[in-house]
Amino acid sequence: MANAFRDGLREAGFIEGQNVVIEYRWAEGRFERLPAYAADLVRREVSVLAATTTPAALAAKAATKAIPIVFTSSNDPVRLGLVAALSGSGGNVTGATQMNVEVAPKRLSLLLEAVPAAGVVAFLVNPTNPTAQSQIDELQAAARSLNVQLHVLRGAIEPELEAAFARAVQLGAEAFIVGSADPFFTGRAAELGALALRYRLPAIHQYVEFTAAGGLLSYGGSIADSYRLAGVYVGRILKGEKPGDLPVQQTSKFDFTINIATAKALNLAIPPTLLARADEVIE
Q: Are residues 88 and 146 in the same domain?
């Protein structure tokens, strides 16, 4: 994703190491570290804060009202309070969103098309993520409307991931959803896909790395595209534009992938109508 961000910067005329310097901070999924990192960068008087996750964006906004902030987020930034309006907030914050939390009900719907007999679904969420409760609320409402029982499972550290799949099997789950808008899960998409296959659970996540590793389905806004858009905005701000004048960009690219090899391993017959809508089918 860092390459996509640098590609955006390059589109705006900035090349790292030549005419722009990037100070990196990585919280390794430990969201409690983010306020200190944001405060440190503010003290260094950086020109722009690029906050490339929802938790990082919230920490950056809490740290400064003066330094321009460009975020990437999987959520509705207005609902989060990052900006007052998508059209331009007039403040110091703008960015790009994939709206991946808001399409969680769509993921459930796609999963049920692939596994129509599933009446019990497990949902894995990171309880330390500031968006955890909104994710739960969105999916619980969707599950009720589809007459599906939803079990909410939590995972915030490595050992809890496999434990969640084991617990899902114990609860009789017939399908599995991995929460979105979470760097901890994003960075472990391949591991989660492999776990889904090992525990023989038809599962969906937002990124193709999940299906490539054995997950059944992936559906979500392109994170690479949002990082590129954020890079472009950072470059435009460095040239003098004000973040409050720049509307929040919404990625128009949504990727839907099906792993047919996993479907065969799980003895699932994917409906032709679902296959026809896939952007990629992994054989």
A: no
Which domain does 241 fall in, by range?
A: 2-98+222-252
Q: Is 183 helix (H, G, I), strand (E, B) or coil?
A: helix
**Rounded distance between C-alpha atoms, residue 181 and residue 100, angstroms:** 7
pTM, 2 dp: 0.77
Whether the predicted pLDDT of 198 surpasses 90: yes
85-119 pLDDT tens trace: 888 777 999 999 887 666 888 999 999 999 999 99
The torsion region of residue 198 among left (phi > 0), alpha (psi -120 to 50) and beta comes to alpha
Domain CATH for 229: 3.40.50.2300
Q: Are 161 and 197 in a shared domain?
A: yes
Q: Are strands 217-221 and 254-259 parallel, antiparallel or unpaired?
A: antiparallel
Q: Are residues 149 and 244 in the same domain?
A: no
pLDDT at 62 over 70: yes
Question: Using CA atoms, how far apart are residues 205 and 255, in angstroms rounded to an integer?
Answer: 11
In the numeric block, which tokens belong to residue 186? 């994003």
